Amino acid sequence: MPHRILQNRRAFIKTLAGTAAGLAGSGAIGAPLIKNPGLERKLTLNNMHTGEKMTAVYWADGHYMPQVLQEVDHLLRDHRTDTSIQMDRQLFDLLYLLQRDVGLHKEFQVISGYRSPETNEMLRKQGQGVAKKSYHMQGKAIDIRVPGIALRDVQRMALKLKAGGVGFYSRSNFLHVDVGPLRHWG
For the whole model, what pTM was predicted? Predict the structure, then answer.
C-alpha cells in the first residue's frame, strides 16, 4: 500500500478514536452518565398530583432493581390518563446525580413525568408551551422542583451535568430536565 494512503488511513482512524472518546465523556445520548457502577443509587420523589411519595434504591450491586423501577415508573405516570411506560433509565441516573448535588436528603417534587400523547396534545391546545414531540411522551423528561433550593440554583446544577435538556420555567416554578440532546432555555 502506498505510504500516502497509510498516512491518510491512520489520520482517519485517529480522528474516529478522538471523536468516540469525546462523545463518551460528553454525556452524549447513549453514553453512561455515572462512571462508577458500584455505587448505590437512590431517589426521593413526591408526585404533586397524586400525593404519592417514595424513597427508593433503584440501583444496587451493579444493577438496576426491576421491581423498584416499576414502582418509580408508576409514580411518574400520566395522572390524567393513569397510564405509564418504562421511563428511560438514564433519566433516573440524571436525577440521581442532580439529587447528589442538591442534597441526598432533599426530595424532588414531580410536576410531570410521563405524558401520554392525549395529555400532551390537550396541554398543547391549551397553550401550555408544550412541545409537539415532547420527551415526556418517550419517558425521557421530568419537570421538578426542590423545596428549599432556589430554582436558579437547581438549574445551574443541572446545566453543569451536561446530560441533556434543561428548561427553566420561573412563572410555573419548575425545572424541566431530559436526556435528549444537550440544550437549554428559559
Answer: 0.81
- According to the model, what pLDDT value does residue 34 have? 74
Amino acid at 65: M
- How many residues belong to the chain? 186
**What is the rounded CA–CA span in Å between residue 10 and residue 158?**
38
Nearest alpha carbon to residue 98 among 130, 142, 37:
142
Residues 6 or more apart in contact with residue 86 via CB below 8 angstroms: 69, 73, 139
Closest by CA position to 74, among listed 114, 120, 123? 114
User: Over the stretch 26-41, which tens digit does the pLDDT of each residue have?
Assistant: 344 455 677 766 679 9
**What number is the average pLDDT over the span 13-36?**
47
Distance CA 185, CA 176 (A): 10
- Give the N- to C-terminal CA distance of the chain in Å, as an integer: 55
